[in-house]
Write a structure and sequence with these properties.
The chain has three helices and no strands. By secondary structure, the chain is mainly α. It has a domain of about 30 residues.
Length: about 60
Amino acid sequence: MGPIDPVRDTFEWRLCSLALAADLPILAICKGAQLLNVVAGGTMVQDINAAVAEPIQHQQRAPGW
């Protein structure tokens, strides 16, 4: 979780809704995939560690090189 931008979120929600309604292809990466999921009627779990007994590793811990 990090900072939110309500203006951007509202814009992206509306844009995604219009694209879905027009049956346009959508490329969604990271937050975009989460947004697409929710706009299309899916669910969102904000705290995976609290909701899942044995979650998979979400963030890379290996050295960046």
